[in-house]
Amino acid sequence: MNGWTGKMLRVNLTTGSCSSESSEKYFDYIGGKGMANRILYDEVPAGTKPLDEASKVIFAAGPNCGGSAPCSSRTTMSFLSTFTKYNAIVDAHMGGDTAIMMKYAGYDAIIIEGKSPKPVYVAIKDDDVQIKDASALWGKFTMDTVAEICRAEGAGFNVVTIGPAGENGIPMANVLNNGGHSGGGGIGCILGSKNLKALAIYGTKAVYVADSKKILELNSYVINELMGSNNNHVVPTVAQSWSEYENAGTRWTGHPGLTWGAAEGGPIDTGESPPGEPTKFGYRCQKAVFDWGPMAEKYTVKMTGCATCPVRCYASLNIPAIEKKTGVKPAHANTCMANGAYAVSWMPQMMEKYQDFEEEGDGQFMAGYMACTVADDLGLWDNYGDLNCTLGYFFQNDRALLRQILPPAEFDAIPWDKRDAGDPVFLKEILEMIASNKYEISHLADGAYFVSQRYHDLLGDDYLHSAMLGLWGPIGGKRHHGNECAAQVGLLTNIIYNRDGMCHTIINITGSGLPYDLQKSIIEELFGAGALDKPAAYTPMNESKAKFAKFGVLRQVIHDSMTLCNWVWPMTFSPLKSRGYKGDLSVEAQYMAAVTGQPWTEDSLNEAAERVIQLQRAMTVEAVGSTDMRNLHDVPANYIFDSDPDIPAFSEGTTKLERADWQTALTMFYKEFGWDETTGAPTRASLEKFGLKDVADALDAKGLLPA
Questions:
Q1: I want to staple 342 with a disulfide (CB 3.0 to 4.6 A). Which of 236, 319, 371, 703 is the partner?
Q2: pLDDT value at position 566?
Q3: Could you give the CA distance from residue 475 to residue 201 in angstroms, rounded to a whole number?
Q4: How far apart are CA 165 and CA 380, in angstroms?
């Protein structure tokens, strides 16, 4: 079999049984996200709560994983949300080499079900699958757990583990694999409730492909002509000899004079890394400096990342002073919000000053790095800044809200003397208190919606709608590149999901670094006039924007199902002037055809992706218990319309939207998917079009099809 292995592994923690079965009936859903969503629909009854024994977690990889395509080793995990309203289906995504090891072991998916009577971990080595006692690992941090399991099973194992936060039932607990690659979404809480500490996976089998020569040709084409840096930013941050443009906001940060300052053997200059020189590709993304600022340069050992990825967006730092001052491990690797959130989002409220470590003014950077390391070791997820912003919200105004929710003894037990002294250990102890689930403050990690419910008499409705919290909507999903990114298009990409959108398709375009007029001409050629607004100079909704938004979520599904990294894919633009900076949106389909030997095209991939979206929307309707998605689910937070009160929407200088126009946007977006234009719910026709008659029948039986 080409691409897919044709098998999935079922681990029943209640009975202790492990068995393999065919995965072929799910191939119409591509793999990864699509496969996992359909398994969850088939096997977990509507109305199940995330911590019920009947709840399941599915780890899934796609047919491209293991076939060498650039950035093809992402893992999708599907389960019920622990942290947003309705407890509806959510997906989380994780880098590293978990997905590749799954494929090498012979599995397209791993289904975790039931509940163990005691702490266990699952050791998978090809066909040998064992459930082993993890009592000695319970309570250990993620990095120590990885080390101990690798000592027991073998150094080549990929270990996916929860930390104390998951064991203790914190709704915003995550998993990490091999110490730095995290997967969020509350999955750690569910695995903890099942007494599953970890998966340890090692595979020695082959992943077969139909046309290896074509795949190697595609790899060369993509790396040399299409790929830029992280988020496929195709313009460097500073002027370089090969580039027509530069843009300080991009993630093509490597340049002459910027180094990996703590590299073994001495600093390594990242230099120029022009297209067509693949051996220099890994120097393009100096993500440590992008995330942390200039102080990170001298502590950067290297950039690392996921299997099969040339971009290397994970910043590996080693800061011995951290261990000396705080006792926290000095070396860590991470990227994106785990870094940025702890550096910026909540520190102005959490701490008002910072002790210097090694040089004047380095305290905030050091404190942020330490907090990121501690949170990862605890297996405590930030939910794209939700936890951090929530803490900031309760700490503002001299901790007025915090004083009201905490018992006086608990408030007084917090080490305020360390905060007043600027000692970063204060942050460590706060995070440990939250992860322990022994204190009222732990509930600030319930997720914004459940925080609002718990303290509604105190917070009212303003909390969920506040700009400081930054949700896309009051169901509790964090805005993940919303209205600030291509106006209505960016916000529409969020409403498909029951958490933050995790959709980078559009931000990869607007953040590419290319001049707006050039972006506009390429995007309008694809989607029609008016598809892409100038930043902070928006226009009313139109059909081209609806098509652009649909493209955004379809590509996200394709990437999470094949599996490819949506931080880099799709190849909408290119760094080459000789191509007119145009990318190639046919490449995903070309890979699918070369890997599987089947005649995949852009149209057939889009059809498979839309099948997944139609299914997910139907599952969300079941979770909501109503067809009225427009008013019960797809509702943005008020600040999106009320910011900049002195500037009207569609004026230059604001990213705010207009409420009436948003309703037009919803109607146009619903029409693109064939959903009922009044409610936003899938119709029988839209479901049956994608082979989902059984889903339509089930909704109809519950009165959940639009009239």
A1: 371
A2: 95
A3: 35
A4: 6
* Threshold 0.90, pTM exceeds: yes
For 300-353, give the DSSP string: EEEEE--TT-SS--EEEEE-HHHHHHH-S-SEEEE-THHHHIIIIISHHHH-S-
Query: 19-27 contacts: CB < 8 A, separation 24 or more?
Result: 20/106, 20/107, 20/127, 23/107, 23/108, 23/109, 26/108, 26/109
Residue 125 three-state SS: strand
Q: What are the start-end ranges of the H helices in 124-163?
A: 142-153
Q: How far is CA 377 from the centre of its chain?
A: 18
Q: What is the average pLDDT score of the chain?
A: 96
pLDDT, tens digit (0-9, with 9 covering 90-100), for 84-102: 999 999 999 999 999 999 9
Q: Which of these, 627, 678, 662, lies nearest to 549 by C-alpha position?
A: 662
**Position 655, amino acid:** T
CA–CA gap between residue 521 and residue 552 (Å, rounded)? 17
Counting every residue written for the chain, the total comes to 707
89 closest CA partner among 538, 620, 457: 620
User: Cα angle vertex 625, ends 621, 630, to 5°?
Assistant: 55
- Count other C-beta atoms under 10 Å from residue 486's C-beta: 27
Q: Name the pairing type of β-strands 7-12 and 109-113.
A: parallel
What's the rounded Cα separation, in Å, for the pair 507 and 520?
A: 14
Backbone φ and ψ for 608, nearest 5 degrees, come out as -65, -40
Q: How many CB atoms lie within 10 A of CB 227?
A: 24
Q: How confident is the model at residue 349 (pLDDT cuts 50, 70, 90)?
A: confident
DSSP of 620-658: HHHHHTSS-HHHHTS---THHHHSSTTS-TTSTT-----
- Categorize the per-residue pLDDT at 347 as very low, low, confident or very high, splitting at 50, 70 and 90: low
SS3 77: strand
> Residue 557 phi/psi, 5° resolution?
-65, -45
Sign of the Cα torsion 610, 502, 112, 177 reads: positive
φ, ψ for residue 130 (rounded to 5)?
Answer: -130, 140
d(CA 632, CA 463): 18
Answer for the pair 211, 597: CB distance below 8 angstroms, yes or no.
yes
Average pLDDT over residues 406-424: 96
Q: For the segment 280-326, what is each residue's pLDDT rounded down to a tens digit?
A: 999 999 999 999 899 999 999 999 999 999 999 999 999 999 999 99
pLDDT digits (tens, 9 = 90+) for 604-660: 999 999 999 999 999 999 999 999 999 999 999 999 999 999 999 999 999 999 999
Joined tokens for residue 113? 């079900």
